[in-house]
Amino acid sequence: MSEIQSSSKNLTRVKLTVDLVIFFAFLIAMDPRSSGIAVHEWLATAALAALIVHLLLSWDWIVQISRRFVGKVNLQTRINYILNWLLFIDGSVMMLSGFMISEAVFPSLGIKVPVNFAWRSLHDMTANLFLLLLGLHTALHWGWVVDTFKRYIFKPLGRLVSFRRRKDVTA
Amino acid sequence: MKTLGRILIILAVMSLVMGITYAAVNAGGSSSAAPQFQEGRRPPFREGQFEGGERHERGEGGGGWMFGLIKNVGVIAVLVTLIVLPKSIRRKRRRIAAAS
């Protein structure tokens, strides 16, 4: 196998891992009643780093489509690109509004923020919008999700099961 | 170096969005319209829901947290189904039409 193929395989594997971490972190953070406010805030803050890694891994695509956006790009890619920007903007606003109503992260760092009720409603609104946008984002990348799951999770698992069966038969 | 530059670009754009939002919320004058509280003390969002930074269960029993999680996964699953299913049906029809 060539070096390029191997590195692309590794990149896809890293992408899948990072995406799964973000997805499950978001699901846990989305429900502060179950996780507790401290877990909600720290997890969301840590997810910022994972989001940056996610963007870095897709950097080439972002640059490529940004350059070609005005020109010839198919409709799905265009929708995908706009949706990604909406996700980024909504995520940033959600993060800021979360910091502004922080009850765990900011107080533990000794940072005081002025009280403003607008931040809480903005946080709730952007969080709900984020869930919808995340659903659309997942739907638009569903083909990739299924392919990558098949290639890196189901196939190796299947191989492992068949190897064990063969081993049991020969034993 | 290249990665660091990209991280800085991402953070710069994020800061720009946050800055615009911050300015917009403060310019909205909602802070002056909201009731004022002693500095550093914030009232609970809903009466009795928070205490000492921790949230109480809302009397939903042990399954309350599961409901929230399932609801969120459900919303995503519905959206994925609504978009992916018609697409795959259309693709299948096109394949059948091309084959016949």
What's the structural blueprint in terms of helices and strands?
The complex is a heterodimer of chains A (171) and B (100).
Chain A: H1 3-29, H2 32-35, H3 37-57, H4 59-68, H5 75-100, H6 105-108, H7 117-140, H8 142-170
Helix pairs in contact in A: 1-3, 5-7
Chain B: H1 2-27, H2 30-33, E1 50-51, E2 54-55, H3 64-99
Antiparallel strand pairs in B: 1-2
Textual characterization of the structure:
The complex is a heterodimer of chains A (171) and B (100). Chain A is mainly alpha-helical and 171 residues long. Chain A has helices at 3-29, 32-35, 37-57, 59-68, 75-100, 105-108, 117-140, 142-170. In chain A, helix 1 (3-29) packs antiparallel against helix 3 (37-57) and helix 5 (75-100) packs antiparallel against helix 7. The longest helix of chain A is centred in the last third of the chain and has 29 residues, at 142-170. Chain A starts with a helix and ends with a helix. The model of chain A has no long low-confidence stretch (mean pLDDT 87). Chain B is mainly α and 100 residues long. In chain B, 66% of the residues lie in helices and 4% in strands. Chain B has helices at 2-27, 30-33, 64-99; strands at 50-51, 54-55. Chain B has a two-stranded antiparallel sheet with strand order 1-2. In chain B, a hairpin with a 2-residue loop joins strand 1 (50-51) and strand 2 (54-55). The A-B interface holds A 27-28, 30-38, 52, 55-56, 59, 88-89, 92-93, 95-97, 101, 103-104, 107, 112, 114-120, 122, 131-132, 134-136, 138-140, 142 and B 3, 6-7, 10-11, 13-14, 17-18, 21-22, 25-26, 28, 30-31, 34, 36-37, 39-40, 42, 45, 50, 53-55, 57-58, 64-66, 68-69, 72-73, 75-76, 78-80, 82-84.
